[in-house]
Amino acid sequence: MIDVQHLRKDFGSTRAVDDVSFRVTRGEIIGLLGPNGSGKTTIMRVLTGFFAPTTGHARVAGFDAAEQALALRRMIGYLPENVVLYPDMRVGNFLTFCAQLRRMPVARRTGRLASTIRDCGLQEVTERLIGTLSKGYRQRVGLAQAMLHDPEVLILDEPTVGLDPRQIVEIRDLIRGLRGRTTVLLSTHILAEVSMTCDRVVIIDRGRVVAEDSADALSRRTQGSDQTLVRVDGPADAVHTALCNLPDVQEVIRTATTAGEDGYTFVIRTTAGESARKAVAAAVVGHGWGLLEVRPVAPSLEDLFLRLVPHEDTGTAH
Amino acid sequence: MTLLTLYRKELAAYFVSPLFYVVSAVFLCLSGYYFYTDLIFFVTFGFGVNILGNFWQLLLVDLRLVMLLSIPLLTMRAFAEEKKLGTIELLLTYPIRDSELLLAKFAACATVCTAMLAGTLCYPVYVHALQPFPWVPLLAGYLGLLLLALSFVACGVFVSSLTENQVIAAAVTIGMLLFFWIVSWNEAATSPALLRVLIRVSMFDHFESFSRGVIVASDAAFFVCFIAFFNFLTLRVLESRTWRGHR
Fold first, then answer.
1. Which of B20, B89, B91, B238 to substitute to test the interface with A, most A CBs within 10 Å?
2. Exposed, middle or buried, B145 (CB in 10 Å: 0-12/13-18/19+)?
3. A241 found inside a domain
4. Which parts of B119-247 fold into alpha helices (H)?
5. Residues A199 and A251 in one domain
6. Co-location of A203 and A230 in the same domain
7. Which pLDDT score is estimated for B103?
8. In this complex, which of A11, A78, A103 lies closest to B93 when CB atoms are compared?
9. Rg, Å, chain B Cα set
10. N or C: which end of chain A has fewer CB within 10 A?
11. Residue from B114, B117, B146, B111 nearest B227 by CA
């Protein structure tokens, strides 16, 4: 459904996207994961025909993004980054305007408007001016305009950024509900988001594809760098030594040096995951120290990148 | 169909914001003052004869200055506002041609400027009620004003497509239009050969025949070309986003 081949995009002397290739099959939900400024938005803008590629090809639903932009845009729904909408328009009027621009026949328009407004939870705000809506509602209006014509392909640029936790869950449910029916390409810089929503992940860093994998395989990879946080009420140095001596432990970092009521906090990097946490708990309790907290620390995007990107490459400036 | 949708949206945008009402009010106040003073001048010194040359031509020439200062304030938002809001990205990822968007914006802006200009038609109606005069030459003058207004719109929309700052768009448009006026102003500053060229590109020299109540085909063609040329430039600017990487 989406076919990107050796895509390169230069802005003057800056190379924003460099030799990116990936494919998305029909009905798949795919995540573009990467830090801010890694080229995700540029890739999406090329896919919508808003930018032309410098070299390479991008095809969506069989249409070339540069040559057949108009036909391509009929097939897609696009939610731009930061959800840009007209503040002076009312939600209902805005969505009608969008439907008219899409040349939707009146009969179909009425039905789709009603169902999209319901799906996106906008029933209560249809008469409100977009400018007076909260960020969460504006995001939903943006999503509604993208989904309105039931497109073959949905391109969503950071769909959950700036939303509160409950809204994030709602939006994710909405996107997951499209699985199998609509092809979805979404971008994010939050690692947890892709594993929750996407089937497959393309990881982008500084304009290049660093890795491409299924969401499950990705989470398996990150498990290798399992980190455990322990808070212990006991003699710091002795605890440190005891933790270092545990099997499978690679590194123990003491994060605070002064002991308070909170005890000492250590971050332990292990290769064992779950069983390591058992061993840690057993060791602390076995020494008679107070075990205040043991929990896994979710690997961050930075951790993942450090593992995926060759080390001599990290830290070099553009 | 799409064009009509875009046109309605553009037009609605003018009527929901106070800008159009304020600019029109200022325009009509200044035009009214010109009308009043020009009429007094005509009655006092025009000896009541040749109302076309001694009154209407003066008024039409005065009106173009008021237009020059007010129309850029109506065109400045055309693309600059959409670029500032970012909505241009939304529109241009819809199945819409760049030309449709431009045409809708140009037409909406032309409509409000025409409406504003139509407000001044109450002067000839009033004068005609007092003292009948030949209508047709004055209508030729109004056609000239309309072509001038559309030229201002084309130029203003073009400048608006270059920036996301509306104030800059208005300032640069006023500067450009003023330049097209004064370019042939000072004969002494240019060689006779150059002056002939400058008169050819000066919008206000082409307006002169209209203000006398005469429609000269070449002058009308000049305005049409001027409008087409600036719309062409705007289209190129819109297109440039695909390789420049700016909205």
1. B89
2. buried
3. yes
4. 122-130, 135-160, 166-182, 192-201, 203-211, 217-244
5. no
6. no
7. 95
8. A78
9. 19
10. C
11. B146
Shared-domain flag, residues A47 and A172: yes
Position A80: which residue type? P
Residue in A with minimal Cα distance to B82? A86
Interior angle at CA B131, CA B126 and CA B134, nearest 5: 95
In chain A, residues with a C-beta closer than 8 Å to the C-beta of B244 are 11
Domain boundary among A222, A243, A260: A222
* pLDDT tens-place string over residues B70-112: 999 999 999 999 999 989 989 989 999 999 999 999 999 999 9
- Please state, in angstroms and rounded to a whole number, the distance separating the CA atoms of residues A296 and A185: 30
Mutate to test the interface with B, among A84, A85, A148, A152 (most CBs of B within 10 A): A84
On whether both A212 and A257 belong to a single domain, the answer is no
The radius of gyration of chain A's CA atoms, rounded to the nearest angstrom, is: 24
Q: How confident is the model at residue A316 (pLDDT cuts 50, 70, 90)?
A: very low
Domain count, chain A: 2
- Look at chain B and report how many structural domains it folds into: 1
User: Which tokens hold the place of B148?
Assistant: 């001038």
Instruction: Provide the domain limits for residue B203.
Output: 2-239
B164 occurs within a structural domain = yes
Instruction: Retrieve residue A30's tokens.
Output: 């795919």
Out of B2, B5, B87, the one facing A84 most closely (by C-beta) is: B87
A89 vs A57, A85, A94, A110, B180, CA distance in Å?
A: 37, 8, 6, 19, 37
CATH number for the domain that contains residue A274: 3.30.70.100
